[in-house]
From TrEMBL:
Gene Ontology molecular function: cyclic-di-GMP binding
Residue ranges annotated for the PilZ domain, each copy included: 3-93
Annotated protein name in UniProt: PilZ domain-containing protein
SUPFAM superfamilies to which the protein is assigned, alphabetical: PilZ domain-like (SSF141371)
Record's signal peptide: none
Source organism, top-level taxon: Bacteria
Pfam families reported in the protein's UniProt record: PilZ (PF07238)
InterPro entries: PilZ_domain (IPR009875)
Amino acid sequence: MLDRRKHLRIPVRLFLSFSGGKVRGEGTVLDISMGGCIIESQAPVHVDDIFYLQIALENDQTPLEVAAMVRSVSSRGIAFKFLRSAQENKRLLAFVHAKTESSGAGSSS
């Protein structure tokens, strides 16, 4: 079975708020990678909606701001795919890299 994911997912519990169009919401990031994240939220979103996410990274004062598109909505949560600018975000890269190192998840083949 092929795994379509290009990026390692890191389980987290981070607060976030997001807005796009007339929709504003907040929730909890359940996992994050350089490609996107899955959140838990009651906000009414639809596939292909674009939002600006503000994610409160641990021990960081200012939230990480990234643009993302809704990839899917399911009982598991809302899956966001980060837009290209987010995938080049240095703070996101540093956060994901630090989490990968600390969990030892980067050593699997």
